[in-house]
Amino acid sequence: MFLAPVILFPIVVFFAKHMAISKADKFFKSEWDVFMKKIKWSNSAVLTVIFFILLALNDGKSS
């Protein structure tokens, strides 16, 4: 009975660590996906603005 904590503690810590890392990985993966979606959206917004600026500049030159 005296040795039970010595045997059980490493096992409990192992499983707790595994569960915590698993949950952290899921959280950071979802945060990374959100970040990538924002990057893609902002890239397309910037390209759209550049397109309209170039279109306006070309209309001014052709006159």
Write a structural description.
The chain is mainly alpha-helical and 63 residues long. It has a domain at 35-63. Helices cover 94% and strands 0% of the residues. The protein contains 1 helix and no strands. It is rod-shaped. The model has no long low-confidence stretch (mean pLDDT 81).
Rounded mean pLDDT is 81
User: Which H/E pattern describes the elements?
Assistant: H
Q: Give the CA-based shape.
A: rod-shaped
Structural class: mainly alpha
The total of beta strands comes to 0
What is the share of helical residues?
Answer: over 70%
Number of helical runs?
1
Q: Layout of SSEs?
A:
Blueprint: H1 4-62
Brief overview:
This protein has one helix at residues 4-62. The protein is built from 1 helix and no strands.
Keywords:
94% helix; mainly alpha; 1 helix; 63 residues
